[in-house]
Amino acid sequence: MGDHARSSATRTLLEAMCKELKTRVLRLAPQTANGPSLPSGDGQQDWKDVLETTVNSLREGQVVAVPTDTIYGLACLAQNSEAVKRVYDIKGRNGQKPLAICVGEIDDIYKYCKVTVPRPLLADLLPGPVTLVLEQSDALNAELNPFTPLVGVRIPDHAFIRRLSQMCGEPLALTSANVSSHSSTIAVHEFQDLWPKLAVVVDGGPIGDQTPECRLGSTVIDLSVSGRYQVIRPGCALSATVDILEQKYKLSQAPADH
Description:
The structure is a single chain. Helix 2 (47-59) crosses helix 6. The mean pLDDT is 90. The N and C termini lie far apart (55 Å). By secondary structure, the chain is α/β, with parallel strands linked by helices. It has a single domain, classed as DHBP synthase (Alpha-Beta Complex). It has seven helices and 15 strands. Helices cover 30% and strands 23% of the residues. Strands 1, 4, 5, 6, 7, 8, 9, 10, 11, 12, 13, 14 and 15 form a 13-stranded mixed β-sheet that branches. GO terms for molecular function: double-stranded RNA binding; L-threonylcarbamoyladenylate synthase; tRNA binding. It is a peripheral membrane protein.
């Protein structure tokens, strides 16, 4: 059996397993300059229907896979401790590794985090491929990352997940859609082994230009110390991010052990 035939057979088997376990694999109609296009009849679904299905699954405490502006992610409601535990179980993730949160608007950051930087700085970086690490506020689930007072927060520059966050009305816990220590994923078929463990898989098509750089994920910057920044993960947008922090806002890089 050739590689293509073997891959096709594997996909057929996984899709059958998902059907039996009631995993929904939903293909988004492509995004255009004027917003989501109409479904083409090629198995694509209207964004409104996909959003409603995904929101309902999240509110039921389920874990879903969604496209972002960098890589595919696993998401659940951050305020639901059982759902958060399920994310760790699905990924086989070390319980001492934190999950980021994803929100729909900059105003939401002020609700769930203690912000020590100017609001225009947030607006210059978000939405975008950046995770900002801040001190979490009392409004955020205390059982999310209980080993640290900090939390990474994202507003991806991707219309679907941003609208999903807005419709949920509360933060999503977000992490990469892969087994821990495995490569990040930029197409849904790359994490097919996880499909049966998910309520919904939203297929937004391939992300980026399929180069290795696409798999770097977001640039993670700690802004929890006033006037300083620390690079936690270089990611895919380091140079542009550091230029904004240093040139425009005159922040200095903190020592590695701050």
